[in-house]
Amino acid sequence: DLSTQIAGVKLQSYLMNASGPQCTTFDELKRIAHSSSTAIVTKSCTLMPREGNPEPRYQNLPLGAIQSMGLPNLGYQAYLDMVPALKALNKPVVVSIAGFSISDNIEMIIAFQNSAVDLIEVNFSCPNIPGKAQIAYDFEQTDQALAAITALGNKPIGIKLAPYFDMAHFIAVANIIKKYPVKFITCINSIGNTLVIDPYTEQPIIKPKGGFGGLCGDYVKPIGLANVRAFRELLGNDVSIIGVGGIKSGTDAFEYLLAGADAVQIATSLEKEGLGCFARIEHELKAFMATKGYTQLSDAKGKLKPL
Ligand code: DHB
Questions:
Q1: 202 in a structural domain
Q2: How far apart are CA 149 and CA 154, in angstroms?
Q3: For the chain, what is the mean pLDDT?
Q4: Sign of CA dihedral 195, 196, 200, 206
Q5: Catalytic residue among 23, 126, 187, 216
Q6: SS3 167
Q7: The domain spanning residue 103 has which CATH number?
């Protein structure tokens, strides 16, 4: 039994899709609903529809991927209109919002607060819009944005964080989160503004932003684990934590559980392997836990042992 909860919303299982691949159109979201993903998470939306950045904008790498999609999405109204049909697929619906300003986010959040969505994940960490800084790396803006968006309704609000790499940053962000009724955090987003070079062509391998893009997959797992662990220790058990970053096996998912994740999201494995990744990883996680005599998530959650 891998049942869990995020911000009081019951989930049958521990694994769901991350906002990112294969969750932009209704058909894609319907396929996610029909997979073993325990929730339906939508692609981050903006006020207006977007085509996204020029191609090539996603490339697989031996240990993950690099991407600079640029928020291609149907515009928030399309997702709002889809909510009843998504809810009819009988899984919790998590909407991801990525406004270009606090007022964009307020407008979209008010709309979704008045819909049937279960959770609202506000993306503070998209690294791929030319000229736009990641909110999560600007602590003053993070504080101001949280003050505004946590006062808009009764549905649980969470934030998608960028990866942090300094203990002082973990502490500063945790202290801001504690000032507001933030019900969950999702960490981590891709590591922004990395560069992969093809030495043969002497070019970057993606086109947008001179080749700078978000690093995903195996490369980022230790960073995701550290972020989940640090925030679990700093925030206690009042804030739910969704772990993301490089989960492609049952043991990867188990490591996030030890770090303190209440649930996990999967992007790169979904893109590379397809929808079967959820059932496979769930089965592997159950089998690995069984070898230890663990039957539920609480047997191991947050229980990383000291060395
Ligand atoms: C995109 C990438 C992200 O990492 C994110 O959080 C939101 C959007 C993108 O490029 O589409």
A1: no
A2: 11
A3: 98
A4: negative
A5: 126
A6: helix
A7: 3.20.20.70
268 Cβ below 6 A of ligand 1: no
Range of the domain at 43: 4-53+70-191+217-299
Counting the structural domains of the chain, the total is 1
Instruction: Name the residue of 55, 58, 69 whose CB sits within 8 Å of the most ligand 1 atoms, as the mutation to test its pocket.
Output: 69
Please tell me the predicted confidence (pLDDT) of residue 12: 98
Per-residue CA distances from 162 to 36, 40, 184, 242 (Å): 26, 21, 14, 13
**Atom 7 (ligand 1): residue with closest C-alpha?**
126
Rounded CA gap, 227 and 115, in Å?
31
The band of 299, judged by pLDDT with boundaries at 50, 70 and 90, is very high
Q: Which amino acid is at 57?
A: R
Model confidence pLDDT, tens digit, residues 253-283: 999 999 999 999 999 999 999 999 999 999 9
In short, whether 71's Cβ falls inside 6 Å of ligand 1 is: yes
68 in Cβ contact with 128 (< 8 Å): yes
Does 126 participate in catalysis according to the annotation?
A: yes
Residue of 44, 104, 188, 223 to mutate, ligand 1, most atoms within 8 A of C-beta: 44
Distance CA 239, CA 175 (A): 12
pLDDT digits (tens, 9 = 90+) for 67-107: 999 999 999 999 999 999 999 999 999 999 999 999 999 99
CB 72 within 8 A of CB 124: no
**Residue whose CA lies nearest to ligand 1 atom number 3:** 126
CA distances from 44 to 143, 159, 279, 299 (A): 21, 12, 24, 33
